[in-house]
Design brief:
The chain is about 40% helix and about 20% strand. It is of the alpha+beta class and about 475 residues long. Strand 9, helix 8 and strand 10 form a beta-alpha-beta unit. Helix 1 packs antiparallel against helix 7 and helix 7 runs parallel beside helix 8. The protein is globular, with a radius of gyration of 24 Å.
C-alpha cells in the first residue's frame, strides 16, 4: 500500500495579500519612499547611451530643465553640456543647475557656468564653506539627476565629463557606468527631490512647480529614494535586501568599503546558499579604495561570496539585482560616507524585465573581469584581452576626492595597531608610510613645536568663531 505524503496547503489568497502588504510596508519604511506604479524605465549603459539621451531631452525641452550633478568637469564634454543648457535658457526655458562645490572643484571659478548664467540660467553651488558651519562643507551632494519638463527624469551613477567617454591620448578607456530614463508618475517625485535641494541652496521651492498629474507610462513599479545625511535610507534598504534574497544577489560598486553590518549580511546570505557576487574596480580614480576594498575580501570569500574585479580603466556603476526580480541603480556607493553622509539619489525597481536586463549586463561585465579566489586569481570566463589603451594601475586621481577615503583607511591602520587581524600584503605599504609620517611628526613636535601650534590655533579659532556666529544667529532670531 503506497504511503501518502502530506501536502501542506499554500497560503490562502487573503494571507498572500497580507504578506504583500507587509512586504511593501517593510520596503517603504526602510527606504523612506513609497512604491510608485505605472512607470516606463529604460536602462542606459555607459556614456554612449546616457549622454545622447540627456542631450535629446534637453534639446526638446519646452518649459524647464533641472540638473543636480555632483561633478561637471571643465573639459570638452562639460562645456558641451553647459552650452546646450545655455541655448535653451536663451529660448526662455527655465534652466536651474545645482552643482556640488567640492565635486566641481575650481571649474566654476574658472568660468565653467558663465555662458549659462549669461544666457539667463540659474546656477547654484551646494554646501560651500561658510563661517557659521565649520565642518558642514564636508557633506556632499553626490546626486546625478536630470529632469525635463516634469515629464522625464534621468537617474544614474554618471557625472558629466570626458572620463566617461574615455581619453584615448592618455590611454584611458571609457568608464563603465549605468543610468536610467524614467517616464510616468515617478517623475513628480524626482522633481520634488530637486525642489528640496533647490531650497537648500537658497532657492524658492515654488520656483520648481511640481506636475499636477503625470499619466501612467508603463508597468514598472519603483521607489525613488532621495537620501540625505543621517537618514541612511538606502543603507536600511540594502540590509533588508541582503536579508530577503533567496537565490541571487549581484552587486556592482565603485568604492566598496562596506561596514560590519553589511558585510555580515552578505556573508550570511552566501552561507545560506544565495549566489552573492561583487563586481568591483581593479583600477580606481581614488587610489586608496582598491586596497581598502581588498582588505575586506578574505572573510567574504571564506563565506562563499564571489568577488570579481573589472579589467578596464574604471567601473563606476552602483547597481544591484536580487532574485532576478528586484534591482537598484543610482549614485550611492557601498560605504558609510555615501550611505550616511551624503545627499544621494537611487531608484529601486520591482520588475522582472528591468532586472533581467541588468542581470544580462552584469554577466557581460563578468566576462571582462577577473574572479578573485583564495590562493590565486582565475578569470571569470576565458580571460579577455586587456581593453585597448588600458594600462594597469592607471586612473584619474583628483585630490579633491581623497577625503572620501579617509574613514576607510582607518580599517587598515586600526588592524595594525590593535592586532585584530593579520594584515594583507598590499596593506603593508600604507602602514609603513603612516609609521614614517608619525615619526616625522613626533620629531617636529619635539624640535619645532610652533610649526604645529600655529595651524592648530588657526583651526581652533575657526571652530570657535563658527560656534559663536551660530549662537549669535539663533539669539538674534529669538
Amino acid at each position: 500500500m503506497p504511503t501518502r505524503t502530506a501536502v501542506r496547503p499554500g497560503p490562502a489568497p487573503r494571507d498572500l495579500e497580507t504578506l504583500r502588504t507587509l512586504a511593501d510596508q517593510a520596503f517603504s519604511r526602510a527606504a523612506g519612499a513609497p512604491l510608485i506604479t505605472g512607470n516606463h524605465v529604460d536602462v542606459l549603459r555607459d556614456a554612449t547611451e546616457n549622454y545622447p539621451a540627456w542631450e535629446r531631452a534637453i534639446e526638446r525641452a519646452r518649459r524647464s530643465i533641472h540638473v543636480e550633478m555632483y561633478i561637471v568637469h571643465r573639459d570638452a564634454v562639460g562645456r558641451r553640456f553647459v552650452e546646450a543648457l545655455a541655448a535653451k535658457a536663451r529660448e526662455g526655458i527655465a534652466v536651474r543647475v545645482i552643482y556640488d562645490w567640492f565635486g566641481c572643484g575650481l571649474g566654476p571659478l574658472r568660468g565653467l557656468f558663465s555662458p549659462l548664467v549669461a544666457a539667463g540660467g540659474e546656477v547654484r553651488a551646494f554646501n560651500p564653506p561658510a563661517l557659521s558651519s565649520a565642518l558642514g562643507w564636508l557633506r556632499r551632494n553626490h546626486r546625478k539627476l536630470l529632469t525635463v519638463d516634469g515629464e522625464i527624469a534621468f537617474v544614474s551613477g554618471l557625472c558629466i565629463g570626458q572620463l566617461w567617454l574615455g581619453i584615448p591620448e592618455k590611454g584611458l578607456a571609457p568608464w563603465r557606468d549605468t543610468g536610467l530614463a524614467i517616464t510616468g508618475p515617478a517623475v513628480t517625485h524626482a522633481e520634488a527631490a530637486f525642489a528640496d535641494s533647490w531650497r537648500l541652496v537658497g532657492g524658492t521651492p515654488s520656483e520648481v512647480p511640481l506636475p499636477t498629474f503625470v499619466p501612467p507610462a508603463g508597468d514598472v513599479s519603483l521607489r525613488l529614494i532621495p537620501t540625505e545625511p543621517f537618514t541612511a535610507n538606502l543603507f536600511r534598504l540594502d540590509l533588508l535586501v541582503a536579508a530577503l534574497a533567496r537565490q541571487s544577489l549581484w552587486i556592482t560598486d565603485a568604492y566598496f568599503v562596506g561596514p560590519g553590518p553589511y558585510l555580515e549580511g552578505l556573508k550570511r546570505a552566501a552561507r545560506d546558499g544565495v549566489d552573492v557576487r561583487l563586481l568591483l574596480p581593479r583600477n580606481s580614480d581614488v587610489g586608496w579604495v582598491v586596497p581598502l576594498s581588498r582588505s575586506l575580501y578574505r572573510p567574504l570569500l571564506e563565506a562563499g561570496v564571489r568577488i570579481f574585479e573589472w579589467n578596464g580603466t574604471m567601473i563606476h556603476a552602483k547597481t544591484a539585482i536580487a532574485d532576478q526580480r528586484w534591482a537598484r541603480i543610482g549614485s550611492t556607493n557601498l560605504n558609510i560616507t555615501s550611505w550616511i553622509g551624503n545627499w544621494e539619489m537611487d531608484v529601486a525597481i520591482e520588475h522582472e524585465g528591468v532586472a533581467s536586463t541588468l542581470a544580462a549586463q552584469f554577466e557581460d561585465d563578468l566576462a571582462r573581469s577577473t574572479e578573485i579566489v583564495l590562493g590565486s586569481p582565475r578569470p571569470a570566463a576565458p580571460r579577455p584581452r586587456r581593453l585597448p589603451g588600458v594600462r594597469a594601475g592607471t586612473g584619474y586621481k583628483p585630490s579633491r576626492r581623497v577625503m572620501r577615503t579617509v574613514a576607510g583607511v582607518g580599517r587598515t591602520f586600526g588592524a595594525a595597531l590593535t592586532g585584530s587581524r593579520r594584515l594583507e600584503d598590499f596593506e603593508v605599504q600604507p602602514v609603513v608610510w603612516l609609521g614614517l609620517l608619525l615619526v616625522a611628526l613626533a620629531v617636529v613636535v619635539f624640535f619645532v613645536p610652533w610649526l604645529l601650534a600655529w595651524p592648530l590655533a588657526a583651526v581652533a579659532t575657526w571652530f570657535g568663531v563658527a560656534l559663536l556666529v551660530e549662537a549669535w544667529t539663533v539669539w538674534r532670531q529669538r
